[in-house]
Design a protein that fits this description.
Length: 120
């Protein structure tokens, strides 16, 4: 019997392989949804460096968010990440949901990043 964690890892690898199959030419917006917080970063896989990152743990957001695990906090993190990425000159990314379903907090983060100026 395959465990829940093994199924998640399989989905994560499968979705990431699809990105790399098509020849990734843009930075990747990678999202990790933890139990208490949400983390996102824009990674340039060609250079192997993180361009911009944001999370619900950031010092800027510490007093503003009621909880790090809500849809409202995901929207704030997405907007903050997009603002930081655009400031570094990144406007187009490809979205890496990391094996999670595109719904709830993941979707809220992506929509907020789109509204703040990222294209994907």
């Amino acid at each position: 019997m395959i465990s829940k964690q093994e199924r998640y890892e399989f989905r994560k690898i499968r979705s990431r392989n699809r990105l790399f199959e098509n020849g990734i030419r843009r930075p990747r917006l990678s999202v990790y949804r933890g139990a208490k917080n949400i983390y996102a970063q824009v990674v340039d896989d060609v250079k192997g460096a993180t361009v911009a990152a944001a999370s619900s743990n950031d010092k800027e957001l510490k007093g503003k968010l009621k909880s790090g695990k809500s849809i409202a906090s995901a929207k704030v993190v997405g907007a903050l990440l997009a603002k930081r990425a655009v400031a570094k000159g990144v406007t187009e990314v490809c979205f890496d949901r990391g094996g999670r379903i595109y719904h709830g907090r993941i979707k809220a983060l992506a929509d907020a990043a789109r509204e703040a100026g990222l294209k994907f």
